[in-house]
Design brief:
This protein is an alpha+beta fold. 43% of the residues lie in helices and 13% in strands. The chain folds into two domains: 4-71; 83-162, Glutaredoxin (3-Layer(aba) Sandwich), CATH 3.40.30. A hairpin with a 3-residue loop joins β1 (4-5) and β2 (9-10). α1 (12-24) packs across α3 and α3 (48-57) packs across α4 (62-71).
Protein backbone atom coordinates (compact mmCIF):
# COMPACT_ATOMS: atom_id res chain seq x y z
CA UNK A 1 0.00 0.00 0.00
CA UNK A 2 1.46 3.34 -1.00
CA UNK A 3 0.70 5.75 1.80
CA UNK A 4 2.71 8.76 0.69
CA UNK A 5 2.41 11.02 -2.29
CA UNK A 6 4.33 14.10 -3.43
CA UNK A 7 7.20 15.24 -1.20
CA UNK A 8 6.72 12.47 1.38
CA UNK A 9 3.30 13.71 2.51
CA UNK A 10 0.62 11.26 3.59
CA UNK A 11 -2.31 10.82 1.29
CA UNK A 12 -5.42 12.56 2.62
CA UNK A 13 -7.29 9.29 3.16
CA UNK A 14 -4.46 8.04 5.37
CA UNK A 15 -4.35 11.27 7.35
CA UNK A 16 -8.07 10.85 8.00
CA UNK A 17 -7.63 7.22 9.06
CA UNK A 18 -4.89 8.17 11.55
CA UNK A 19 -7.13 10.92 12.90
CA UNK A 20 -9.97 8.41 13.37
CA UNK A 21 -7.67 5.99 15.16
CA UNK A 22 -6.33 8.69 17.47
CA UNK A 23 -9.84 9.96 18.24
CA UNK A 24 -10.92 6.38 18.92
CA UNK A 25 -8.44 6.38 21.79
CA UNK A 26 -9.48 9.84 22.98
CA UNK A 27 -6.36 11.47 21.53
CA UNK A 28 -4.63 10.78 24.84
CA UNK A 29 -0.85 10.58 25.25
CA UNK A 30 -1.36 7.59 27.54
CA UNK A 31 -2.90 5.70 24.59
CA UNK A 32 0.16 6.07 22.34
CA UNK A 33 1.02 2.36 22.30
CA UNK A 34 -2.58 1.45 21.45
CA UNK A 35 -2.63 4.10 18.72
CA UNK A 36 0.65 2.84 17.28
CA UNK A 37 -0.58 -0.75 17.40
CA UNK A 38 -3.80 0.19 15.57
CA UNK A 39 -1.93 2.25 12.96
CA UNK A 40 0.57 -0.54 12.36
CA UNK A 41 -2.35 -2.95 11.99
CA UNK A 42 -3.81 -0.69 9.34
CA UNK A 43 -0.65 0.27 7.42
CA UNK A 44 1.50 -2.79 8.17
CA UNK A 45 4.33 -0.59 9.44
CA UNK A 46 5.01 2.86 10.92
CA UNK A 47 7.02 5.05 8.53
CA UNK A 48 8.12 8.54 9.60
CA UNK A 49 5.12 10.17 7.91
CA UNK A 50 2.69 8.12 9.98
CA UNK A 51 4.59 8.88 13.18
CA UNK A 52 4.53 12.59 12.37
CA UNK A 53 0.78 12.54 11.79
CA UNK A 54 0.19 10.66 15.05
CA UNK A 55 2.29 13.22 16.89
CA UNK A 56 0.25 16.04 15.35
CA UNK A 57 -3.06 14.38 16.15
CA UNK A 58 -2.29 13.81 19.84
CA UNK A 59 -0.13 16.93 20.27
CA UNK A 60 3.02 14.97 21.11
CA UNK A 61 6.53 15.66 19.80
CA UNK A 62 7.40 13.24 17.01
CA UNK A 63 10.64 12.48 18.86
CA UNK A 64 8.60 10.86 21.64
CA UNK A 65 6.52 8.88 19.15
CA UNK A 66 9.73 7.75 17.43
CA UNK A 67 11.24 6.82 20.80
CA UNK A 68 8.37 4.44 21.55
CA UNK A 69 8.40 2.96 18.04
CA UNK A 70 12.12 2.23 18.22
CA UNK A 71 12.04 0.97 21.81
CA UNK A 72 9.49 -1.81 21.31
CA UNK A 73 10.53 -4.57 18.92
CA UNK A 74 6.90 -5.21 17.94
CA UNK A 75 6.81 -1.95 16.00
CA UNK A 76 8.50 -1.67 12.64
CA UNK A 77 9.31 1.26 10.39
CA UNK A 78 9.79 -0.97 7.36
CA UNK A 79 7.10 -2.99 5.62
CA UNK A 80 7.12 -6.65 6.59
CA UNK A 81 6.39 -9.51 4.25
CA UNK A 82 2.98 -11.10 4.02
CA UNK A 83 4.51 -13.94 6.04
CA UNK A 84 6.84 -12.36 8.61
CA UNK A 85 9.36 -14.86 9.98
CA UNK A 86 10.57 -14.21 13.52
CA UNK A 87 13.39 -16.34 14.90
CA UNK A 88 13.84 -16.39 18.65
CA UNK A 89 17.41 -15.69 19.66
CA UNK A 90 16.83 -15.76 23.41
CA UNK A 91 19.25 -17.79 25.51
CA UNK A 92 17.46 -21.16 25.32
CA UNK A 93 16.92 -20.88 21.57
CA UNK A 94 20.40 -19.56 20.91
CA UNK A 95 22.18 -22.40 22.71
CA UNK A 96 20.02 -24.85 20.76
CA UNK A 97 21.04 -23.45 17.37
CA UNK A 98 18.95 -20.36 16.59
CA UNK A 99 21.95 -18.80 14.84
CA UNK A 100 21.99 -21.69 12.37
CA UNK A 101 18.27 -21.14 11.72
CA UNK A 102 18.86 -17.46 10.98
CA UNK A 103 21.59 -18.46 8.51
CA UNK A 104 19.37 -21.06 6.84
CA UNK A 105 16.35 -18.77 6.44
CA UNK A 106 18.62 -16.07 4.99
CA UNK A 107 20.18 -18.57 2.58
CA UNK A 108 16.83 -20.01 1.47
CA UNK A 109 15.19 -16.62 0.96
CA UNK A 110 18.20 -14.68 -0.28
CA UNK A 111 17.65 -11.84 2.18
CA UNK A 112 19.17 -10.68 5.46
CA UNK A 113 17.51 -10.08 8.81
CA UNK A 114 15.44 -6.92 8.56
CA UNK A 115 14.76 -7.35 4.85
CA UNK A 116 11.75 -8.43 2.80
CA UNK A 117 11.80 -10.62 -0.30
CA UNK A 118 11.30 -8.84 -3.61
CA UNK A 119 7.84 -10.35 -4.02
CA UNK A 120 6.80 -9.03 -0.59
CA UNK A 121 6.00 -12.52 0.63
CA UNK A 122 8.60 -13.05 3.39
CA UNK A 123 10.58 -10.94 5.83
CA UNK A 124 13.02 -12.09 8.50
CA UNK A 125 13.48 -10.69 11.98
CA UNK A 126 14.92 -11.91 15.24
CA UNK A 127 13.46 -11.42 18.68
CA UNK A 128 14.74 -12.01 22.17
CA UNK A 129 12.19 -14.42 23.63
CA UNK A 130 8.76 -15.75 22.73
CA UNK A 131 8.26 -17.46 26.08
CA UNK A 132 8.32 -20.97 24.66
CA UNK A 133 11.75 -22.03 25.92
CA UNK A 134 10.70 -25.67 26.23
CA UNK A 135 10.24 -25.72 22.44
CA UNK A 136 13.62 -24.16 21.67
CA UNK A 137 14.65 -23.23 19.09
CA UNK A 138 11.43 -21.48 18.12
CA UNK A 139 10.39 -19.82 14.86
CA UNK A 140 7.19 -17.88 14.28
CA UNK A 141 5.66 -17.28 10.88
CA UNK A 142 2.96 -14.71 11.46
CA UNK A 143 1.07 -16.01 14.49
CA UNK A 144 2.00 -19.66 13.98
CA UNK A 145 4.72 -21.05 16.24
CA UNK A 146 7.12 -23.82 15.25
CA UNK A 147 9.12 -25.56 17.97
CA UNK A 148 12.25 -27.71 17.96
CA UNK A 149 13.16 -26.28 14.56
CA UNK A 150 16.37 -27.47 12.95
CA UNK A 151 17.98 -26.11 9.77
CA UNK A 152 16.72 -29.11 7.79
CA UNK A 153 13.10 -28.14 8.65
CA UNK A 154 13.40 -24.65 7.19
CA UNK A 155 12.56 -25.70 3.61
CA UNK A 156 9.46 -27.55 4.82
CA UNK A 157 8.25 -24.53 6.78
CA UNK A 158 8.77 -22.20 3.81
CA UNK A 159 7.04 -24.64 1.47
CA UNK A 160 3.82 -24.28 3.50
CA UNK A 161 3.72 -20.58 2.67
CA UNK A 162 5.22 -20.58 -0.81
CA UNK A 163 2.23 -22.51 -2.12
CA UNK A 164 -0.22 -19.94 -0.68
CA UNK A 165 -0.98 -17.41 -3.38
Amino acid sequence: MSIVCEKDKLQKQHQLRIKEICQGFGGEHSELINILHACQGYFGYLPAEVQEEIGMQINMPVSKVFGVVTFYSFFTMKPKGRFPISICTGTACYVRGADKLVDEFQRELGIDVGQTTGDGKFSISTLRCVGACGLAPVVMVGDKTYGHVSPNKVKKILKEYKKEE
